[in-house]
Write a structure and sequence with these properties.
about 45% helix; 8 strands; Multidrug-efflux Transporter Regulator, Chain: A, Domain 2; alpha+beta; 3-stranded antiparallel sheet
């Protein structure tokens, strides 16, 4: 069996949740439909899940369900932007991004006093990419421009931001997720961020 998958039976045993809970969370969109993978086995058709994703999601649901309703949790895990905004001062006070990243963003996109959710997402991703230590300050302009130009085209659908470098030349692109992407020989994948994961992390920080 694919080591990256876990069967439904194993999942229920490992997490201690019931069949009813699993499918109630599916109906509430806490667990994406496309994570339920039907495969043929020697006993017939069985349901499998991407192991790392489902275990992480169930851990979060179990830890957060006391403080939030199922609808609030569904909104938290949705790839759709939240109806949220923060002032520049609030962003800094909450340590969501650094002063340097804010200054860099404003250098390219103009000064902003109140950041809407998309702008919050862009500076949050910029902060994460710089923290990898793999991105130069000059390259941040490419990332900000790629997000501003292309993220709105996905209209809340899941997508990845990919940063590649070859012979010192950097390229940033956005692709639908999940996708298989292959690069030419000599190109180095420097960073790849899933926007849905970033949105979920950001919503948790704003909650």
């Amino acid at each position: 069996m694919d080591q990256n998958l876990i069967s439904k039976k194993e999942l229920l045993e490992l997490t201690g949740i019931s069949y009813g809970q699993l499918y109630r969370w599916k109906r509430k969109n806490l667990i994406p439909e496309d994570w339920f993978i039907r495969k043929s086995t020697f006993t017939g058709q069985e349901t499998f899940f991407p192991k790392a994703k489902i275990l992480d999601r169930i851990d979060k649901i179990l830890n957060m369900k006391e403080g939030l309703s199922l609808n609030e949790l569904a909104d938290m895990f949705s790839p759709n932007p939240a109806e949220a905004s923060l002032t520049k001062d609030e962003l800094l006070k909450r340590n969501i991004v650094s002063k340097e990243v804010l200054a860099m963003y404003e250098k390219y996109q103009g000064e902003t006093e109140v950041f809407d959710f998309e702008q919050l997402l862009y500076v949050y991703i910029l902060e994460k990419m710089l923290q990898t230590g793999e991105i130069s300050l000059d390259e941040t302009k490419i990332i900000v421009q790629a997000l501003a130009d292309h993220y709105p085209k996905f209209h809340g659908k899941n997508c990845d931001l990919i940063f590649v470098r070859k012979l010192g030349v950097a390229i940033c692109c956005m692709v639908s997720s999940p996708s298989e992407v292959y690069f030419e020989s000599g190109a180095k994948l420097v960073a790849q961020f899933n926007l849905a994961n970033c949105i979920e992390e950001l919503k948790l920080k704003l909650a």
